[in-house]
Amino acid sequence: MSLRTQIHSAFDEVAPPAHGLPERVVQTVLTENAGHKRRERLMLRLRVPLALVAMFMLVALVVGVLIGGRLMQDWNAFHNVAPAGDNYQSQVAQLEAVPLRVPVFASQLDCKSGPFNSAGSLGSGPVYGDAGPISNSTWGAYYSIVAYADTDVAGPILVRAIDLFTRQPVIFIGQYAAGPVAVSDTFKGQTYDQHAEVLLSTSTSDKQAVSHKFVWKFIDGVPTSYSGSTGWQIDGIGFSEVFVVC
Protein backbone atom coordinates (compact mmCIF):
# COMPACT_ATOMS: atom_id res chain seq x y z
CA MET A 1 0.00 0.00 0.00
CA SER A 2 1.34 3.38 -0.90
CA LEU A 3 1.76 6.28 1.43
CA ARG A 4 -1.00 8.28 -0.37
CA THR A 5 -3.50 5.45 0.07
CA GLN A 6 -2.64 5.15 3.74
CA ILE A 7 -3.22 8.89 4.28
CA HIS A 8 -6.70 8.79 2.61
CA SER A 9 -7.67 5.75 4.69
CA ALA A 10 -6.55 7.47 7.89
CA PHE A 11 -8.54 10.66 6.95
CA ASP A 12 -11.66 8.66 6.27
CA GLU A 13 -11.42 6.99 9.69
CA VAL A 14 -11.20 10.26 11.62
CA ALA A 15 -13.59 12.39 9.40
CA PRO A 16 -17.37 12.30 10.23
CA PRO A 17 -19.61 10.65 7.67
CA ALA A 18 -20.78 13.01 4.85
CA HIS A 19 -24.09 11.21 4.24
CA GLY A 20 -24.26 12.47 0.64
CA LEU A 21 -23.40 16.09 1.54
CA PRO A 22 -21.20 16.71 -1.51
CA GLU A 23 -23.96 15.65 -3.85
CA ARG A 24 -26.46 17.91 -2.08
CA VAL A 25 -24.06 20.83 -2.30
CA VAL A 26 -23.65 20.27 -6.00
CA GLN A 27 -27.42 19.98 -6.48
CA THR A 28 -28.04 23.18 -4.48
CA VAL A 29 -25.53 25.08 -6.58
CA LEU A 30 -27.12 23.80 -9.77
CA THR A 31 -30.62 24.71 -8.52
CA GLU A 32 -29.53 28.24 -7.53
CA ASN A 33 -27.88 28.72 -10.91
CA ALA A 34 -31.07 27.63 -12.67
CA GLY A 35 -33.18 30.01 -10.55
CA HIS A 36 -30.78 32.83 -11.25
CA LYS A 37 -31.00 32.15 -14.97
CA ARG A 38 -34.82 32.09 -14.78
CA ARG A 39 -34.77 35.46 -12.98
CA GLU A 40 -32.45 36.85 -15.64
CA ARG A 41 -34.76 35.59 -18.40
CA LEU A 42 -37.77 37.09 -16.55
CA MET A 43 -36.03 40.43 -16.12
CA LEU A 44 -35.07 40.35 -19.80
CA ARG A 45 -38.69 39.69 -20.80
CA LEU A 46 -39.90 42.52 -18.51
CA ARG A 47 -37.18 44.90 -19.61
CA VAL A 48 -38.32 44.89 -23.28
CA PRO A 49 -42.03 45.73 -22.63
CA LEU A 50 -41.06 48.44 -20.13
CA ALA A 51 -38.83 50.02 -22.78
CA LEU A 52 -41.69 49.92 -25.27
CA VAL A 53 -44.08 51.43 -22.71
CA ALA A 54 -41.60 54.20 -22.03
CA MET A 55 -41.26 54.89 -25.76
CA PHE A 56 -45.05 54.97 -26.22
CA MET A 57 -45.39 57.31 -23.24
CA LEU A 58 -42.80 59.64 -24.75
CA VAL A 59 -44.58 59.64 -28.12
CA ALA A 60 -47.94 60.26 -26.40
CA LEU A 61 -46.41 63.14 -24.45
CA VAL A 62 -45.05 64.79 -27.60
CA VAL A 63 -48.36 64.33 -29.44
CA GLY A 64 -50.25 65.67 -26.43
CA VAL A 65 -48.05 68.78 -26.31
CA LEU A 66 -48.54 69.40 -30.05
CA ILE A 67 -52.31 68.85 -29.93
CA GLY A 68 -52.64 70.84 -26.74
CA GLY A 69 -50.72 73.73 -28.27
CA ARG A 70 -52.93 73.63 -31.35
CA LEU A 71 -56.09 73.53 -29.27
CA MET A 72 -54.83 76.46 -27.21
CA GLN A 73 -54.14 78.46 -30.37
CA ASP A 74 -57.61 77.66 -31.72
CA TRP A 75 -59.19 78.58 -28.39
CA ASN A 76 -57.34 81.89 -28.22
CA ALA A 77 -58.16 82.63 -31.85
CA PHE A 78 -61.83 81.87 -31.23
CA HIS A 79 -62.03 84.15 -28.20
CA ASN A 80 -59.88 86.95 -29.60
CA VAL A 81 -61.80 87.33 -32.86
CA ALA A 82 -64.15 90.29 -32.77
CA PRO A 83 -67.84 89.48 -33.33
CA ALA A 84 -68.93 89.56 -36.94
CA GLY A 85 -71.17 92.57 -36.32
CA ASP A 86 -68.38 94.74 -34.94
CA ASN A 87 -66.75 95.28 -38.34
CA TYR A 88 -70.11 96.16 -39.92
CA GLN A 89 -70.96 98.66 -37.18
CA SER A 90 -67.49 100.16 -37.50
CA GLN A 91 -68.04 100.67 -41.23
CA VAL A 92 -71.44 102.27 -40.57
CA ALA A 93 -69.82 104.65 -38.09
CA GLN A 94 -67.18 105.60 -40.67
CA LEU A 95 -69.84 106.34 -43.26
CA GLU A 96 -71.87 108.41 -40.79
CA ALA A 97 -68.74 110.43 -40.05
CA VAL A 98 -68.48 111.51 -43.71
CA PRO A 99 -69.69 115.13 -43.84
CA LEU A 100 -72.61 116.03 -46.09
CA ARG A 101 -71.54 117.72 -49.32
CA VAL A 102 -75.02 118.69 -50.46
CA PRO A 103 -74.77 122.03 -52.31
CA VAL A 104 -76.37 125.27 -51.16
CA PHE A 105 -78.40 127.32 -53.65
CA ALA A 106 -79.40 130.95 -53.33
CA SER A 107 -82.84 130.34 -54.82
CA GLN A 108 -85.00 127.77 -56.53
CA LEU A 109 -83.99 129.23 -59.88
CA ASP A 110 -80.39 128.17 -59.24
CA CYS A 111 -81.33 124.57 -58.44
CA LYS A 112 -81.07 122.06 -61.28
CA SER A 113 -81.91 118.39 -60.75
CA GLY A 114 -79.24 115.80 -61.44
CA PRO A 115 -76.97 114.28 -62.36
CA PHE A 116 -78.76 111.48 -64.26
CA ASN A 117 -77.52 108.26 -65.77
CA SER A 118 -78.33 107.06 -69.29
CA ALA A 119 -81.55 105.44 -68.03
CA GLY A 120 -82.80 108.74 -66.57
CA SER A 121 -82.23 107.73 -62.93
CA LEU A 122 -80.73 110.16 -60.44
CA GLY A 123 -77.14 109.66 -59.31
CA SER A 124 -73.58 109.47 -60.56
CA GLY A 125 -73.19 105.81 -59.59
CA PRO A 126 -72.67 103.15 -58.65
CA VAL A 127 -76.06 103.54 -56.86
CA TYR A 128 -78.98 105.26 -58.59
CA GLY A 129 -82.49 106.22 -57.47
CA ASP A 130 -85.99 106.75 -58.85
CA ALA A 131 -88.93 108.35 -57.05
CA GLY A 132 -92.32 106.65 -57.05
CA PRO A 133 -95.89 107.56 -56.04
CA ILE A 134 -96.69 110.11 -53.33
CA SER A 135 -98.87 109.44 -50.28
CA ASN A 136 -99.91 112.13 -47.80
CA SER A 137 -100.37 112.12 -44.04
CA THR A 138 -101.19 114.81 -41.50
CA TRP A 139 -97.45 115.24 -40.96
CA GLY A 140 -96.39 115.56 -44.58
CA ALA A 141 -95.81 113.49 -47.72
CA TYR A 142 -94.18 110.12 -48.32
CA TYR A 143 -92.47 108.94 -51.50
CA SER A 144 -91.74 105.40 -52.62
CA ILE A 145 -88.08 105.23 -53.63
CA VAL A 146 -86.33 102.56 -55.68
CA ALA A 147 -82.53 102.50 -55.46
CA TYR A 148 -80.42 100.12 -57.51
CA ALA A 149 -76.91 99.19 -58.60
CA ASP A 150 -75.82 97.39 -61.74
CA THR A 151 -72.28 96.60 -60.57
CA ASP A 152 -70.84 94.92 -57.50
CA VAL A 153 -70.92 97.19 -54.46
CA ALA A 154 -69.84 96.42 -50.92
CA GLY A 155 -72.18 97.12 -48.04
CA PRO A 156 -73.10 98.91 -45.94
CA ILE A 157 -74.44 101.79 -48.04
CA LEU A 158 -75.64 104.90 -46.20
CA VAL A 159 -78.28 107.22 -47.67
CA ARG A 160 -78.96 110.68 -46.24
CA ALA A 161 -80.93 113.64 -47.59
CA ILE A 162 -81.88 117.17 -46.54
CA ASP A 163 -84.17 119.94 -47.73
CA LEU A 164 -82.01 122.23 -49.86
CA PHE A 165 -83.53 125.41 -48.46
CA THR A 166 -84.95 124.69 -45.01
CA ARG A 167 -81.97 122.36 -44.32
CA GLN A 168 -84.30 119.99 -42.47
CA PRO A 169 -83.44 116.32 -42.79
CA VAL A 170 -85.50 114.07 -45.02
CA ILE A 171 -86.83 111.19 -42.91
CA PHE A 172 -87.24 107.51 -43.70
CA ILE A 173 -89.69 104.89 -42.44
CA GLY A 174 -90.14 101.16 -42.79
CA GLN A 175 -87.55 98.78 -44.22
CA TYR A 176 -83.93 100.02 -44.28
CA ALA A 177 -84.71 103.08 -42.10
CA ALA A 178 -81.86 103.54 -39.62
CA GLY A 179 -80.26 105.99 -37.26
CA PRO A 180 -81.80 107.92 -34.36
CA VAL A 181 -85.58 108.17 -34.14
CA ALA A 182 -86.96 111.67 -34.72
CA VAL A 183 -90.73 111.37 -34.18
CA SER A 184 -93.46 108.89 -34.99
CA ASP A 185 -96.19 109.21 -37.58
CA THR A 186 -99.20 107.22 -38.72
CA PHE A 187 -99.02 106.29 -42.38
CA LYS A 188 -101.69 104.16 -44.09
CA GLY A 189 -103.09 103.14 -40.72
CA GLN A 190 -99.72 102.03 -39.28
CA THR A 191 -97.47 103.90 -36.86
CA TYR A 192 -93.84 104.29 -37.96
CA ASP A 193 -90.74 105.70 -36.30
CA GLN A 194 -89.09 108.34 -38.47
CA HIS A 195 -85.34 107.97 -38.97
CA ALA A 196 -82.79 110.28 -40.56
CA GLU A 197 -80.92 107.57 -42.51
CA VAL A 198 -81.33 104.60 -44.79
CA LEU A 199 -78.88 101.73 -44.46
CA LEU A 200 -78.68 99.39 -47.44
CA SER A 201 -77.01 95.99 -47.59
CA THR A 202 -76.23 93.83 -50.61
CA SER A 203 -77.42 90.79 -48.64
CA THR A 204 -80.91 92.25 -48.20
CA SER A 205 -81.60 93.57 -51.68
CA ASP A 206 -84.72 92.57 -53.62
CA LYS A 207 -83.75 89.10 -54.90
CA GLN A 208 -86.71 89.06 -57.30
CA ALA A 209 -85.34 91.93 -59.32
CA VAL A 210 -84.06 90.87 -62.73
CA SER A 211 -83.35 94.22 -64.37
CA HIS A 212 -80.56 95.24 -61.95
CA LYS A 213 -77.91 93.49 -59.89
CA PHE A 214 -79.16 95.00 -56.62
CA VAL A 215 -82.48 96.70 -55.89
CA TRP A 216 -83.72 98.34 -52.69
CA LYS A 217 -87.19 99.78 -52.07
CA PHE A 218 -87.78 102.20 -49.20
CA ILE A 219 -89.94 105.19 -48.21
CA ASP A 220 -88.77 108.74 -47.54
CA GLY A 221 -90.86 111.54 -46.10
CA VAL A 222 -90.89 115.33 -45.99
CA PRO A 223 -93.00 117.61 -43.73
CA THR A 224 -95.69 119.99 -44.90
CA SER A 225 -93.07 122.77 -44.66
CA TYR A 226 -91.05 121.06 -47.40
CA SER A 227 -89.51 123.52 -49.89
CA GLY A 228 -89.85 121.18 -52.85
CA SER A 229 -86.09 120.61 -53.32
CA THR A 230 -83.87 118.01 -51.70
CA GLY A 231 -80.21 117.07 -51.81
CA TRP A 232 -79.11 113.46 -51.46
CA GLN A 233 -75.82 111.87 -50.50
CA ILE A 234 -75.03 108.16 -50.82
CA ASP A 235 -71.87 106.88 -49.14
CA GLY A 236 -70.43 103.39 -49.47
CA ILE A 237 -67.14 101.60 -49.12
CA GLY A 238 -64.91 103.39 -51.62
CA PHE A 239 -67.45 105.81 -53.10
CA SER A 240 -69.54 108.87 -52.29
CA GLU A 241 -72.09 110.53 -54.59
CA VAL A 242 -74.42 113.52 -54.41
CA PHE A 243 -77.46 114.43 -56.47
CA VAL A 244 -80.25 116.99 -56.10
CA VAL A 245 -83.96 116.96 -56.85
CA CYS A 246 -85.52 120.38 -57.60
Computed CA radius of gyration, to the nearest angstrom: 49 Å
Structural class: alpha+beta
Report the β-strand fraction as a percent range.
25-35%
Number of helices: 3
From the 3D coordinates, which CATH architecture of the largest domain would you assign?
Sandwich
Tell me the series of helices and strands, N- to C-terminal: HHHEEEEEEEEE
Assigned CATH class of the largest domain: Mainly Beta
Could you give the distance between the termini? 158 Å
What is the CATH topology classification name of the largest domain? Immunoglobulin-like
Tell me the number of strands. 9
| Shape annotation | globular
Largest sheet: 5 strands, antiparallel
Mean pLDDT: 77
What is the total number of structural domains? 2
Helix content: 25-40%
Low confidence ranges: 62-84
Strand order of the largest sheet: 5-6-3-8-9
Provide structural commentary.
With 246 residues, the chain is an alpha+beta fold. It has 2 domains: 3-79; 91-245, Immunoglobulin-like (Sandwich), CATH 2.60.40. It is 35% helix and 31% strand. The protein has helices at 3-14, 21-80, 84-96; strands at 127-136, 140-149, 157-163, 171-173, 177-187, 190-200, 214-223, 230-236, 239-245. The strands form 2 sheets. It has a 5-stranded antiparallel sheet, covered by helices on one side. Strand 1 (127-136) and strand 2 (140-149) form a beta hairpin. The longest helix is centred in the first third of the chain and has 60 residues, at 21-80.
